[in-house]
Known about the structure:
The protein is α+β, with helices and mostly antiparallel strands. The chain has helices at residues 3-27, 36-63, 69-135, 145-162, 176-183, 185-204, 227-242, 273-289, 300-307, 312-323, 326-329, 331-351, 355-367, 377-380, 388-395, 397-405, 415-420, 441-455, 467-476, 484-497, 499-503, and strands spanning 166-173, 209-214, 217-223, 259-265, 295-297.
Amino acid sequence: xxxxxxxxxxxxxxxxxxxxxxxxxxxxxxxxxxxxxxxxxxxxxxxxxxxxxxxxxxxxxxxxxxxxxxxxxxxxxxxxxxxxxxxxxxxxxxxxxxxxxxxxxxxxxxxxxxxxxxxxxxxxxxxxxxxxxxxxxxxxxxxxxxxxxxxxxxxxxxxxxxxxxxxxxxxxxxxxxxxxxxxxxxxxxxxxxxxxxxxxxxxxxxxxxxxxxxxxxxxxxxxxxxxxxxxxxxxxxxxxxxxxxxxxxxxxxxxxxxxxxxxxxxxxxxxxxxxxxxxxxxxxxxxxxxxxxxxxxxxxxxxxxxxxxxxxxxxxxxxxxxxxxxxxxxxxxxxxxxxxxxxxxxxxxxxxxxxxxxxxxxxxxxxxxxxxxxxxxxxxxxxxxxxxxxxxxxxxxxxxxxxxxxxxxxxxxxxxxxxxxxxxxxxxxxxxxxxxxxxxxxxxxxxxxxxxxxxxxxxxxxxxxxxxxxxxxxxxxxxxxxxxxxxxxxxxxxxxxxxxxxxxxxxxxxxx
Length: 512
């Protein structure tokens, strides 16, 4: 522990004890404990003691940017109060024993305190063993998949508070199935344990967090590491593994133990841990497809390659089947979704998005209002302007939409578009009030498309704008409601492909 933390602790407890002393004697100048006044003075002094403790510790965590003051207060209330009450009761027991039995009372209290300490230690050790067992992979002894996901969430939370960096690497042992087929599963398990031990040994030197991700896959969290440094580290690790012998690997294609790995760096526009892992997985898949025993950092090339393994037409068909439910409940939202989908197809081509982004934008545009299925018919079909209560219900469609598509693992990548397409670039949107680049890129793009269609189609409670009028509105709201970087390209696309359509009445109507 750094020396200044020792000084801080000593100073903190000194202030706490002094605060207790003066509070107690201020309210109980006669020093009479076993009276109503004395006990109330003691309780007030203990309250002061604990309040000072909480404030000073909160100050430390806020200063270190590990917690906000409000979040720490919640932790203290939830977890600290029982400990404070226990301290209060034990101190009263001590005073009573010393007052009534003098030295014998002190010895008796020390025995009680020692026994309690032993009991607490045993309970803590039991809890620690259960905790470790729940978070440890039974075969390799590494952290398991669930604990890895929890730690990743914690790291991302810390990054958002402190603007640090983080890289994630996913590793897959090359030709592991062939090794299993040659030597059997028991020998394969030995290889997994050996590889896990090697990873743990190497990663502990850098304070990296390593886990068994599943099967022959492993994962590494690399905090405070940029992707360039992560790549160099993983290259050194790959060569170290290549040079480390394990029985039987000479019969594998590379004549040595090897792995393929993908690296992804957390950036401000990364929506959540799932997206980060998805990028690392795509990069790993690319490395394996290029011949194995390679390290690859996520980029557009790996993203494009991964997207080829998914048939866009099939996914569109599946989403269309869900969207058809709107036909019986809200035909306007159905038509709106189809138009936004068409705009998204053309705009993704205009922006020259990579295949993964293009697919995500197109599918997200088609399903972005799926949450409106949960809105009562009398609200969604209302022809007059919504009141405040109805508007609050309407706004919940983004959250309900997220819940609906979260049940389908194939649609996980669409969650940011469904949940965040009503966030505004200036931070005045909903549901979270995100601002600027904190809103995922594709959600910012979808916001422009969605709003344009809403402006240019018929709504009973608001005049419909012409395309020209809507373009003026888009420009007026650039860098306010919309990301200005995408406003002009979208306008260019509308002018090139759609301006003439409005004169020919080819655009439908919608209530949005």
